[in-house]
User: Fold these one by one.
Assistant:
Number 1:
Amino acid sequence: SSAQIGVTGLAVMGRNLARNFARNGYTVAVHNRTAARTHALVEEFGHEGSFVAAETAKEFVAALERPRRLVVMVKAGEPTDAVIEEFAPLLEPGDMIIDGGNAHFADTRRRERELRRKGIHFVGAGISGGEEGALNGPSIMPGGPAESYGSLGPMLEKISAKAADGAPCVTHVGPDGAGHFVKMVHNGIEYADMQLIGEAYQLLRDVAGYAPARIAEIFRTWNTGRLDSYLIEITAEVLSHVDAATGKPFVDVVVDRAEQKGTGRWTVQIALDLGVPVSGIAEAVFARSLSGHAALREASRGLAGPKAAPLGEAEAAAFADRVEQALYASKIVSYTQGFHEIAAGSAEYGWNIDLGAVSAIWRGGCIIRAAFLDRIRAAYDARPDLPSLLSDETFAREIADAQDDWREVLIAATRQGVPTPGFGAALAYYDALRAERLPAALTQGQRDYFGAHTYRRTDRDGSFHTLWGGDRSEVSA
Ligand code: NBP
């Protein structure tokens, strides 16, 4: 029993995570259902550090020092349950199972509850950064018992990404499913970020009339400013790539149907249950599904659209600057919505999540890493009870400065018939939040009319009903 940590499940993620632990000086026990993967790992990368190859579950568990730390990196869902069922009987109280897969947080809550009865600490840990991150430093979002973080935390801090200020991109997010919940919302925000970038690209293409290579240059410039982020950086790379076979821009030879694995959808499903308006994330998920309806799109191709020519050269340059403003303002709104969902989940499940700490661990390693997250952290550090990111003075001022351009961009998009559901949903959210009065009052009147659902008044306490079918007098309900 010499290994400080074990990894079972040695596909791309598990293999790279095991190598990351080994490269950082830990002795790592490695195991996989199909033993060939275990041996391949040690053969290929054994020189990188200290590995203990285990063929069976028993050997694997025996190789670990106590309390055991066993990282599970298998396919989410049933395979994770199968692995837990296999290992749990071999473990002792105080041992830890760390699930680094993309589990649904409700599954993590269930698993944590069941294992807690046996004294086993179950740590559901969201891991972001893909295979490259797993190897060189991911952003890690561990949940589970705070107690286990005491011995596990320093190891995770060592292998995690580091933010620009050197801080490790990992924190104990909260009990049971908190880590996987936060990872889920991270992915939802990632969907929204990608959708907004996609809309900016399409506007620069169709309204400004720019070619992909030129748009890549614009994204490169944006990446030196407040939009500085991994997703903007790779957008420039993808847009400047030329297909070797045809000599055309790569983006023009790829089928325009976006796929998804499900975490974005979960973010929206859970938001619906919690009653949190994450309209930007929802539009991003819907935009991907719409893109996939090939037959429907084919059947709709002949529908009428506006006749508008792209802008002239001088106007196009000014328009590109406006798109940057619209993208930035919409991005603030998506993060506002995502953090609202985390706050609501935290309240619902009693997780006590520190929103500033969450933004801090997303600064490096993960897909949505961005300079911007430093500002979100500053906002929550200054005021931990901030009702919304839009209540932060700096963000409010930036949106105030951006809003005229944001509206102009949506006007141009509408005039030219370029779909911008992300920009549009973000602006509608912003305008709804700042509205003095919403038509919800009318909705309440309608509900009272057809279903006697009652309403409240602005000038008196209590619930009321109007006798719509009678003399229309008002009664207390
Ligand atoms: P996969 O999600 O493709 O899973 C393959 C692994 O699961 C193999 O080790 C396989 O063993 C094992 N496995 C399966 Br499938 N069923 C099993 C069972 N019933 N019992 C034991 N082992 C079983 O691997 P991955 O892409 O490395 O991802 C691992 C986890 O990390 C997933 O939950 C994923 O969602 C998550 N994640 C992935 C990424 C990414 O960029 N890929 C990023 C972040 C998180 P075998 O070799 O014997 O078939």
Number 2:
Amino acid sequence: KSGPYKIPVVVHVIHRGEAVGAGTNISDAQILSQLKVLNDDYRRQNEDASSTDPAFVSVAGSMDIQFVLAKRTPEGFATNGIVRVKGPKSSYTSSDNYTLKSLSYWPSENYLNIWVCNITDYLGYAQFPQSDLPGLDNSSSNALTDGLVISYEACGSIDDGNFNLDPDYNKGRTATHEIGHFFGLRHIWGDENACTGTDYIDDTPNQASQTTYCPQSSISDACSPKVMFQNFMDYTDDACMNLFTAQQVQRMIAVLENSPRRATLL
Ligand code: ARG
Ligand code: ZN
Ligand code: CA
């Protein structure tokens, strides 16, 4: 199998009973804007690709992938790929993982499940793939929780009049980042505040720790003369992220073509 990789996506909006387009029950337009961000970011068609630090342009990568909202339900009925369910709670945390996802779930062998809700302890989180690659675990993982959860305040990139996007996370990059994890990428600094931590990727500079906010100029640290804080797998604000590297793309393709509940999406 080779590209273009077409990924069927189902978005489960777990809301509090608001009308469609109000509060946590985000609009179809907001969800469509999220899909556009994913397609732009992964293919490096994002407008701010031109803002990538010139020092890193040569290692920037693009992936021949297309995220499409599902057109058929698991039962074969027509759908727009968006499921709306009134949930039992007004907010959720990552410890609600299984109960949240059991409110609405489509087989993760065939769909990339994205749950959008009022999650309060993270902007989002994803389930890593089963894989032999370094930095991943090949023991069996739960199919029923596979996919990603993102906050309704960080989903999509348009202001549709519902004014609910967090100003630091209003460009849809939370889902870009979480799908990076879903395809096997680790945080660029290696989750350890030392140069021993690694993301198992050679063309991202070794980085001591996470970068937050939006640095206005080049950063050096103890591990490298220039930190790649514009990488989607760092912790900068949405407005400052704009690239994956070629080797990150290679690793995601290896996962997509070989891992359970990834290869079967294709
Ligand atoms: N904190 C989340 C994670 O570790 C997501 C970070 C996303 N960053 C962003 N600028 N949207 O997976
Ligand atoms: Zn992360
Ligand atoms: Ca690296």
